[in-house]
Design goal:
- Helices cover about 40% and strands about 25% of the residues.
- By secondary structure, the protein is of the alpha+beta class.
- It folds into six domains: about 230 residues, Bira Bifunctional Protein, Domain 2 (BirA Bifunctional Protein, domain 2, 2-Layer Sandwich); about 100 residues, no CATH class; about 80 residues, no CATH class; about 100 residues, Elongation Factor Tu (Ef-tu), domain 3 (Beta Barrel); about 140 residues, Threonyl-trna Synthetase, Chain A, domain 2 (Threonyl-tRNA Synthetase, Chain A, domain 2, 2-Layer Sandwich), CATH 3.30.980.10; about 130 residues, Roll (Diaminopimelate Epimerase, Chain A, domain 1), CATH 3.10.310.40.
- Strands 13, 14, 16, 17, 18, 20, 21, 22 and 23 form a nine-stranded antiparallel beta sheet that branches. Strands 1, 4, 5, 6, 7, 8, 9 and 10 form an eight-stranded mixed beta sheet that branches.
- Helix 16 crosses helix 17.
- The structure holds adenosine-5'-triphosphate and magnesium ion.
- The site of adenosine-5'-triphosphate has 16 residues, from strand 4, strand 9, strand 10 and helix 6.
- It is an enzyme of class 6 (ligase).
Length: about 850
């Protein structure tokens, strides 16, 4: 469903996407006749059904398109098929095999066009249909509905749609189905489209006949189910019912009683499928591009749940279980990645619910303080910009309230902000000064770190952030430009007369290696020695090779579900992000470290192949990275059993890495973990520091023979002392308890004492409860002070609470005023804390008034 290497499309939106190269003639299909089912997502670009979904009962975001295909073979016409077979077979499948009543079916045929294309009506299709369908069921369709084009250029042709009328007989008698075809009626819908590709649209806009004709058909699986199961809505089929039932249970709502609730339930039931499949295909919700499309689908579901199903907690993630049960057999990736999908959805729900909560309150304020029916676009922008409250939701909520949004104002606020951020990152770039007319730049950095070069051109770039920098291009370079997660080389240029300029960074721009310097050499037109900082390069190479070994180790130890999701190779350290649903345990990290270090000890020699065909590399077992674009010819780097497609720099032998040490493991997003590690010199420094620390600890312990035993002794001594202190404190409390008991005085039959003691709150409570167990009719108020604070506790025997209507909670609240504090508790025991120890005595003096 997620497309990776099609710059024109983020998601598969029709069955033909996967076969595009066959139609364009860029590749030869293995089979000329194919049937398939294809997950499609129609939420952006040319096909965008998102706003319909939930509101109607037959459009989904994600749906399964069933298709049959013929890839015409111009050399052998007998292999493929065309209109005659496609039409006959479609009819046979629907009426003979599926037993759909032929009287409920209508078909459409292209009527021709009078525009520049001057296309004839599709007489061939009409004549074929006429043989099987009465003529009054054949509808003539215009170019918009019945002429299909892949894009501005390429294969295209007329199509024939099949519509089905599933209304009751009574309704059919009232309005003929023919009048409702293509009229957005929920029970008169298109189920199958047969496309006949017979033309090629050329770059100049003209059409030419294709030598090889193709058939491309698409039938919506969910709509077919609706017809075959005799229900009136896709959501009443067994494809969707399990979700609806689950949503009803979780949200305590009922489907089929109220239109708003129903829409919300349909939205959630639909959207979870789209989001889950997208995550399974590797496209997680994010802030940009395809990830943002997915985030918006999920947010639409969350917001419908929040508003119409009263969900305050994440719940959509729970439907992933249902989905895995329902579809997991046909789509094993759902089962395999269930936890990742659940975690990602849950986390998105949590964060968006927080945003919604906040945003809705703010929007409510905006609405209530609005003067007329129109809401200020500036306010809406503030909500969007500062709080992440999506503008389409604001617009939706306003329209539900009969209010409108000043969109022009919003758009200008948005444009202003874009201008501001553009200005902040503005750089002024001078034109290139050409010294040598040579556009070919050779990279020799895999084999050498030093080479004579000539500067072919340069220019000055000025930015607020970095000041003036010069970009230099050489005819040949040993410098590696930042790419593939590896940072660029540093180094210097040395001219004949000792003229040196430092290269502070190297970048890659449109396949060109650009060297950055702060100054220009005094004499530009000469041969320089270009020298890469060897130490820095060696460290980067060591970290890059270690990254490959780490990748291999993770897949071996955690499983092949581990996929690289990001990587950063610097000279100082490496960072590797990968999919894994739980924290990597300490034992697993140890195993990973051991695995990599074992490969280092084996001193594996680098096996490098340059410019081999991509398919060959993959066939040989090289790992290609998700989201990375590769040319036809690729480079493979192999160390033992680790083989990756890679353009980076590596050590010759893993022994050069010396040692691999993981320094941290953490979460980047739900289901994505990050490992940071060091190698070589950095690892040496790390162990050096550790050992210095150990020496320091030893000397603090007075250099014992056995350091560990010395620490253990210290620990046991410490716990022994702790126990002693506890005992002493207990004794002290017992003594105080005895004293207090002897000081009790009888006031009207109540044993009373109010006194300051030297105990903490817990000890006071302890003493009070012990006394309460020993003395009847006790009324005790104890106070203490420490570090500028005072506490006051009151204990009252339970019988007194009832008989004398005394309440400890109320008493400490009232007495608490003297110590400028507050508190509470239960009627028989309560405590107050305050910040005025000076008032403690007065509070204690007042205690007696309660029993007088
Ligand atoms: P409609 O006019 O109903 O939106 P369409 O013309 O967009 O349909 P096609 O692009 O021809 O449909 O797709 C072929 C088939 O795919 C349709 O006949 C229908 O059965 C199914 N289909 C299309 N869009 C959706 C959708 N959003 N949800 C479910 N099924 C769909
Ligand atoms: Mg459509």
């Amino acid at each position: 469903m997620v497309l990776r290497d099609d710059p024109t499309l983020m998601f598969t939106n029709a069955g033909m996407n996967q076969f595009k190269e066959y139609f364009l003639g860029d590749a030869t299909p293995k089979h000329s006749r194919v049937t398939d089912t294809q997950k499609c997502l129609r939420v952006s670009g040319k096909h965008n059904d998102l706003e319909e979904v939930g509101k109607d009962t037959y459009h989904h975001t994600m749906f399964e398109m069933l298709g049959n295909w013929s890839f015409g073979d111009p050399g052998d016409a007998s292999k493929g098929y065309f209109k005659k077979e496609a039409i006959q077979w479609a009819w046979e499948l629907l009426t003979d095999v599926f037993k759909i009543d032929s009287a409920s079916l209508y078909v459409s045929v292209f009527e021709g066009s009078t525009d520049a294309d001057q296309l004839d009506m599709d007489q061939e299709a009409y004549d074929l249909w006429k043989k099987i369908v009465p003529e009054d069921r054949i509808i003539m369709g215009n170019k918009k509905d019945n002429f299909w084009e892949m894009g501005d250029q390429g294969p295209c042709g007329p199509c024939s749609e099949i519509h089905v009328d599933i209304r009751s007989d009574a309704e059919k008698a009232k309005t003929p189905g023919k009048d409702l075809v293509n009229m957005d009626h929920p029970q008169v819908v298109e189920i199958w489209n047969l496309v006949f590709m017979q033309f090629n649209r050329k770059a100049n806009g003209s059409l030419e006949k294709l030598p090889a004709k193709h058939v491309d058909t698409g039938m919506g699986f969910e709509r077919l189910c609706m017809v075959l199961q005799g229900v009136q809505s896709n959501y009443d089929t067994d494809v969707f019912k399990p979700y609806i039932r689950e949503i009803e249970t979780i949200t305590k709502s009922t489907y089929g009683k109220n239109e708003e609730t129903d829409i919300a339930i349909r939205v959630v039931a639909d959207h979870v499928r789209a989001v889950a499949f997208s995550i399974a295909d590797g496209q997680l919700p994010s802030n940009t591009g395809a990830g943002y499309v997915i985030r918006r689908i999920l947010r639409r579901a969350i917001r419908y749940g929040f508003t119409f199903l009263n969900t305050q907690e994440p719940f959509i993630f729970k439907l992933v279980e249902t989905m895995s049960q329902e579809m997991g057999e046909a789509f094993p990736e759902l089962k395999a990645q269930k936890h990742l999908i659940q975690n990602v959805i849950k986390e998105e729900e949590q964060s968006f619910l927080r945003t919604l909560d906040q945003g809705l309150i703010l929007l409510e304020n905006v609405i209530s303080s609005a003067k007329g029916k129109e809401i200020s676009g500036k306010k809406a922008f503030e909500l969007y910009d500062t709080y992440g409250f999506p503008i389409d939701l604001t617009a939706l909520i306003l329209s539900e309230r009969g209010l409108t949004l000043n969109e022009a104002e919003f758009n200008s606020a948005l444009a202003e902000q874009k201008n501001r951020s553009r200005a902040a990152s503005e750089t002024s770039t001078e034109d290139w000064t050409i010294l040598v007319d040579d556009n070919e730049q050779e990279f020799v950095g895999y084999d050498t770190l030093q080479t004579p070069v000539k500067i072919t051109r340069y220019r000055k770039v000025t930015s607020k952030k970095e000041g003036d920098l010069f970009q230099l291009i050489f005819n040949i370079t040993p410098f590696y430009g930042e790419s593939g997660g590896q940072t660029g080389d540093k180094g210097y240029l040395e001219g004949a007369s000792g003229d040196v300029v430092y290269i502070i960074d190297t970048k890659k721009e449109n396949n060109l290696t650009v060297h950055l310097t702060k100054n220009l050499p005094k004499k530009l037109d000469q041969t320089f020695s270009a020298i890469v900082d060897e130490k820095q390069r060696k460290r980067s190479a060591s970290n890059h090779t270690a990254t490959h070994l780490l990748h291999q180790a993770l897949r071996k130890i955690l499983g092949t579900h581990v996929e690289q999701k990001g990587s950063m190779v610097r000279s100082a350290s490496l960072r590797f992000d990968f999919s894994n649903f739980s924290k990597v345990t300490d034992e697993e990290l140890q195993q990973v470290e051991d695995f990599v270090n074992a490969r280092i000890e084996e001193q594996l020699q680098k096996e490098e192949r340059r410019a081999i065909p991509y398919n060959q590399a993959i066939k040989d077992g090289a790992i290609a990275l998700f989201g990375e674009k590769y040319g036809d010819a690729v480079r493979t780097i192999k160390f033992g059993k680790s083989m990756e497609l890679c353009g980076g720099t590596h050590v010759q032998n893993t022994g050069e890495i010396w040692h691999f040490k993981i320094t941290s493991e953490s979460a980047v997003a739900a289901g994505i973990r990050r490992i940071q590690a060091i190698t070589g010199d950095a690892a040496k420094e790390y162990f050096q520091k550790e050992s210095e620390q150990f020496e320091e600890i030893k000397s603090l312990l007075k250099n014992p023979k056995d350091t560990i035993k010395a620490v253990e002794d210290l620990q046991s001594e410490n716990s022994h002392l702790k126990k002693q202190i506890e005992e002493l404190l207990k004794d002290k409390a017992a003594n105080i308890k005895g004293e207090l008991k002897s000081e009790l005085s009888d006031k009207n039959g109540v044993q009373f004492l109010a006194k300051e003691v030297d105990l903490d709150a817990a000890a006071i409570k302890d003493v009070a409860f012990q006394l309460g167990g020993e003395v009847e009719n006790l009324f005790l108020v104890l106070g203490s002070k420490k570090d500028g604070k005072a506490i006051l506790s009151c204990y009252i025997s339970k019988n007194l609470v009832n008989e004398k209507n005394l309440n400890a909670g109320q008493i400490v609240r009232e007495l608490g005023k003297y110590i400028q504090g507050g508190g509470g508790g239960q009627p028989f025991f309560a405590t107050a804390g305050g910040k005025n120890p000076a008032g403690l005595q007065e509070a204690l003096d007042k205690a007696e008034t309660y029993i007088n």
